[in-house]
Specification:
AA_transpt_TM, Amino acid transporter transmembrane domain-containing protein, 19 helices, Hydantoin permease, single chain, 70% helix, mainly alpha, membrane
C-alpha cells in the first residue's frame, strides 16, 4: 500500500501548466502570444526628417529629374521610329521606365523592413536585396552596392559636365546674335558658369531646392510653349512623314527615349525625404502623376516636332528655331537657365555618395568639408566641360552604358533576386517580365554604345570640329 501511494503521488501533484512552463524544451502560452503580437518594423514610422518634402514638392522634384533637355530631342527620336511606331514606342518606354522605378522603390521599402532601417539609397537597396535574398548570392551584397554606387556617381558627374557645356553654349548662341562683335569662346562661357553653379550647389536639402524645381518647371513650360508655337506654325500634313521607320533605326529611338526619361538617381532621395512615403507608389501617387505628365509631354513634342521639321530635325529642336526671332532666341536663353537650376538637383546624386563615404570624418569641420567638396566637384565638371566642349559623344556613350543599366537592368535584377525565394508570381511571371526588361536594356546599351563609338571615330577622322555642339546630344 505504501508503495502504491508513492507511485500515485506524482500523478496527484501533476500540473501540465507547471511542467510545460518549467521545461526549457517548451514555450509557455504567454511567451508564444508575446512574439505573435510583436509589431513588425515599420520604416516609415522610424524616419526622423528635419526637412521632409510634401507630396507636391516630391512631384515637382521628380518632374524636374525627368523633364530635362532630353525632351527637346524627342522629335529626332521620332525621326528614327516614325510617327506611329514613335507614339507607341514612347508610351511603352514610359510604362517600362515607370515600372522599373516602382519595383525599385517597392523593393527598397521591403528590404528596409528586413534590415530594420528607416530608408535606403539606390545602392543600399541593391546591396540589401542580395544580402537578404537567396543564400547563394548573399555574399555579393557589398560588391553590388559598391558597383552601383560608383556607376551612379560617374554617370551623373558625366551628365553635369554636359550641363556645363549646354549652359555655356546656350548663352553664347544668344549673345553672339545680339553682340556679334563681342565674341567669346565656348571655354570662357563655361568658365563663367563656375561661381553661379558653386553657389546653387551649396543647397544641401531637397526641400530647399523645391523653389528651384518649381521655377525650372515653369520656365521649361515657357520654353515648350515657345517651341510648340513654332512647331504648330504652318504645320504640314502628317501624311508627308514616315509612319514606321526602318527597324534598324529603332534602337536609336529607344536609346534616346530611355536616356531622356530616366531620373533613376533622384528617385530614392525623393522617396526617402517624403513626409508621407506611402503616397509615392499609391494611385494616384507621386510616381504615377509625374510620369503621366512626362510621357504626355514627350509624346506631344516628339510627334508634332517631327511632323513640322521632318528629317531636317536636329538633336535639340531649339536648334531648328529661326535665329532672327527674339522669341526663339529667348527660348534658348531660358533653356540655359532651366539646365542651371536642374544642375543643382542632379548634383544631389553624386554628393549623396560622397557624403556617405566621408561619414563622420572631420566631425568638427563638417561645414568646411562640405563647402570644399561641393566647390571642388563643381569646378571639376566646369573644367572638363571647358576642356572638351564637344562632349556629347563621350557622354552619350556613358549614358548608354550607365543609364540603360542603372535605370532598367539593375532594378529588374534586384527585384528578381529579392523575390527569388519569396514569390515570383503565377508561373514565375516576375522572372519572365524582368528578363524581358533586361533584354531591352541590353539592346539600348549595345546600340547606344555602338552609335557613340561610331560617332567618336567619325569625329576624330574629321578633325574634331566643335561646331553645333548639341546637334546630336541627348541629355537625361
Amino acid at each position: 500500500m505504501e508503495k502504491e501511494k508513492k507511485q500515485s503521488l506524482p500523478m496527484d501533484n501533476f500540473s501540465s501548466t507547471a511542467e510545460l512552463t518549467s521545461n526549457l524544451g517548451f514555450q509557455s502560452s504567454l511567451s508564444i502570444s508575446s512574439k505573435v503580437d510583436e509589431k513588425p518594423y515599420n520604416p516609415f514610422e522610424n524616419r526622423n526628417l528635419e526637412h521632409p518634402n510634401s507630396t507636391i514638392g516630391s512631384i515637382l522634384h521628380l518632374l524636374k529629374a525627368c523633364l530635362g533637355s532630353g525632351i527637346l530631342a524627342m522629335p529626332a527620336a521620332f525621326k528614327n521610329a516614325g510617327l506611329v511606331a514613335g507614339t507607341i514606342g514612347t508610351l511603352l518606354a514610359g510604362l517600362i521606365c515607370t515600372h522599373t522605378v516602382a519595383i525599385l522603390v517597392r523593393t527598397s521599402q521591403e528590404v528596409c523592413v528586413d534590415a530594420k532601417k528607416p530608408s535606403m539609397s539606390f545602392a543600399d537597396t541593391c546591396g540589401a536585396a542580395f544580402t537578404y535574398g537567396p543564400k547563394r548570392v548573399q555574399g555579393w551584397g557589398n560588391t553590388v552596392k559598391t558597383i552601383v554606387d560608383y556607376s551612379m556617381t560617374l554617370a551623373y558627374i558625366g551628365v553635369l559636365c554636359v550641363y556645363v557645356v549646354f549652359i555655356g553654349s546656350s548663352f553664347k548662341e544668344v549673345l553672339d546674335v545680339f553682340y556679334p562683335n563681342f565674341e567669346m569662346s565656348i571655354q570662357v562661357y563655361c568658365a563663367l558658369t563656375l561661381i553661379p553653379l558653386v553657389l546653387i550647389c551649396q543647397i544641401r536639402n531637397l526641400k530647399h531646392l523645391v523653389p528651384c524645381s518649381a521655377l525650372a518647371n515653369f520656365l521649361i513650360l515657357v520654353v515648350f510653349a515657345i517651341t510648340l508655337y513654332y512647331v504648330f506654325k504652318d504645320l504640314p500634313p502628317a501624311k508627308d512623314r514616315v509612319m514606321v521607320a526602318s527597324i534598324t533605326q529603332w534602337p536609336l529611338f529607344l536609346s534616346t527615349v530611355v536616356f531622356a526619361m530616366e531620373g533613376i538617381g533622384v528617385v530614392m532621395p525623393v522617396e526617402n525625404e517624403m513626409a508621407n512615403p506611402r503616397r509615392f507608389l499609391s494611385c494616384p501617387g507621386v510616381l504615377n502623376v509625374a510620369m503621366v505628365i512626362v510621357i504626355s509631354l514627350y509624346g506631344v513634342v516628339g510627334f508634332f516636332g517631327y511632323v513640322q521639321f521632318g528629317d531636317a530635325v536636329k538633336g535639340s529642336i531649339t536648334l531648328n528655331l529661326p535665329e532672327s526671332d527674339i522669341i526663339a532666341q529667348s527660348a534658348k536663353l531660358l533653356m540655359g537657365i532651366v539646365i542651371y537650376l536642374t544642375y543643382a538637383l542632379q548634383f544631389y546624386v553624386p554628393m549623396e555618395m560622397i557624403t556617405r563615404i566621408l561619414g563622420s570624418r572631420g566631425e568638427n569641420y563638417q561645414n568646411v568639408i562640405q563647402i570644399s567638396i561641393r566647390t571642388f566637384t563643381v569646378a571639376l565638371t566646369v573644367a572638363i566641360g571647358a576642356a572638351f566642349p564637344n562632349l556629347e559623344l563621350v557622354i552619350s556613350f556613358v549614358g548608354a552604358v550607365f543609364f540603360s543599366t542603372l535605370g532598367l537592368l539593375i532594378p529588374a535584377i534586384v527585384d528578381t533576386v529579392y523575390h527569388w525565394d519569396r514569390d515570383l508570381g503565377f508561373m514565375n511571371y516576375v522572372l519572365w517580365k524582368n528578363s524581358l526588361i533586361g533584354l531591352i536594356s541590353i539592346v539600348a546599351l549595345v546600340s547606344g554604345a555602338y552609335t557613340s563609338i561610331e560617332g567618336m571615330v567619325e569625329e576624330f577622322g574629321s578633325g574634331g570640329s566643335h561646331e553645333n555642339v548639341f546637334e546630336n546630344v541627348t541629355l537625361t
